[in-house]
Design brief:
The protein is 73% helix and 7% strand. It is mainly α. The chain folds into two domains: 60 residues, Multidrug-efflux Transporter Regulator, Chain: A, Domain 2; 57 residues. The protein has a three-stranded antiparallel beta sheet. Helix 4 runs antiparallel to helix 5. The longest helix is centred in the last third of the chain and has 54 residues.
């Protein structure tokens, strides 16, 4: 079974070793420890896959807590129905959040357009007066 060092995983996934250690602290990864004082981390294929899925989940905007719940479900010998049900619930929650953010962005963009229009109007009124004074 292949193993990986923290440096290898960091390079492969273009993340820092510090990020990998953080994911370990969050319970997403569980490397073996070897060497003097058991300080050297040795990551398994399972850890590599969990890191890949963690990074994929983050790109989707999922929280680390949601990612951990989903990954832990796949480690359990449970049926896939609870896993899929939980996954759908996480996606629904995330979709709702994104829809709210989109609505907030639309409102903000409309406000910006209004401010721009007013500023252009004010500028147009001031420019003729400025050119006459010169």
């Amino acid at each position: 079974m292949p193993t990986y060092s923290i440096t290898e995983l960091a390079r492969e996934f273009d993340v820092t070793p510090r990020a990998i250690r953080f994911y370990e602290d969050q319970g997403l990864l569980a490397p073996r420890r070897t060497g003097a004082g058991a300080r050297q981390r040795v990551y398994s294929g399972r850890d590599r896959t969990r890191l890949l899925l963690t990074l994929r989940g983050k790109r989707l905007g999922l929280t680390l807590s949601d990612i951990k719940d989903l990954l832990d479900m796949y480690d359990s010998p449970a049926d896939t129905v609870p896993q899929l049900t939980r996954f759908l619930a996480v996606l629904e929650k995330h979709r709702t959040t994104l829809q709210q953010q989109l609505a907030d962005l639309q409102i903000t963009l409309e406000e910006i357009a209004g401010h721009e229009e007013r500023a252009r109007g004010l500028l147009a009124r001031h420019l003729p007066a400025a050119s006459e004074a010169a």
